[in-house]
Amino acid sequence: MDKAIRNDIYEQAVKWVLEAGTIIRDEMNAPLSIETKSNPNDLVTVLDKRIEAYFVQKIKEKYSNHFIIGEEGYGDSVTSLDGTVWIIDPIDGTMNFVHQKRNFAISVGIYQDGIGEIGIIYDVMSDILYHAKRGEGAYKNEQELPQLKSNVKLTNAIIGMNHFWLCENRLVDEKTMQEFVRKVRGTRTYGSAALEFAYTAEGIEDGYLSLRLSPWDVAAGIVIVNEVGGVTTDIAGNEVNMLEKSSILACNPILKDDLIAFIQSGRK
Ligand code: IPD
Ligand code: CA
Ligand code: CA
């Protein structure tokens, strides 16, 4: 992607993300109509929908030839990553948004012909913007994030993962994952995949594992994690397909082979 074009898109995207954050903060204390989607714990609110519709309207006005993949369905029916594709989660961590009013993020990844060019993750309540352009480093607000540390082992690693690995897991034997959580230094569950990617890029988590995520959960995070030398694959080490759901492993590259070997040893 041409750098001048990319800078223009990036500046617009950051502006819209910050504006969307203001809308959320201004309106989040009004009564929210909360619905459920695939199961009783899969929540969506009127603000998730409103924010996605806001992005779609802005993007279509300014960039009529761009495509949009959005969680709430206001975007396009995208079947190929050809061209410029915005991949948007208007509120990642809706359960946190509804119950805790914090620890949720807006996630926007912008891909050109399948290559992640721009990643933006906005922690709305902390007012922290993680952002990256491919090849130009990753930033937390104005501060450039350093490359990931090279002295991490599984035994001193902090890994983001949730309880589904231990109890409702169709992919990996639960006993193996119990051994895994005992082997690593600690685990964390923040309830927002986008924030877990941001924390992995920041190096405050050494890796993040998820059994099943959608493109909008990971599109921005992959770009940001790449820029600090991190890697993202599925749990078998395959490249993530940005048009499908998949398992996810994002980590410091020094841990990748050990993480994959551990998980694969318990594959069902
Ligand atoms: C969810 C969050 C959560 C992850 C779920 C996602 P949503 O996104 O990222 O951390 O474990 O799998 O669906 O539904 O709040 O946008
Ligand atoms: Ca999400
Ligand atoms: Ca969402």
What do you see in this structure?
The chain is of the alpha+beta class and 268 residues long. It has helices spanning 3-27, 46-62, 94-99, 164-167, 174-183, 193-202, 215-227, 253-264, and strands spanning 34-36, 43-45, 67-70, 84-92, 105-112, 115-123, 128-133, 138-140, 143-144, 158-160, 186-188, 207-213, 231-233, 246-251. The protein folds into two domains: 3-144, Fructose-1,6-Bisphosphatase, subunit A, domain 1 (Fructose-1,6-Bisphosphatase, Chain A, domain 1); 154-264, D-Maltodextrin-Binding Protein, domain 2 (3-Layer(aba) Sandwich), CATH 3.40.190.80. The protein contains eight helices and 14 strands. The chain has a seven-stranded mixed sheet, sandwiched between helices. It has a five-stranded mixed sheet with strand order 11-10-12-14-13, sandwiched between helices. Helix 1 runs antiparallel to helix 2 and helix 6 runs parallel beside helix 7. The longest helix has 25 residues, at 3-27. The mean pLDDT is 96. Bound molecules: D-MYO-inositol-1-phosphate and calcium ion (2 copies). One calcium ion (CA) is lined by residues 89, 92, 193, 216-217. One calcium ion is lined by residues 48, 71, 89, 91-92, 94. GO terms for molecular function: inositol monophosphate 1-phosphatase activity; metal ion binding.
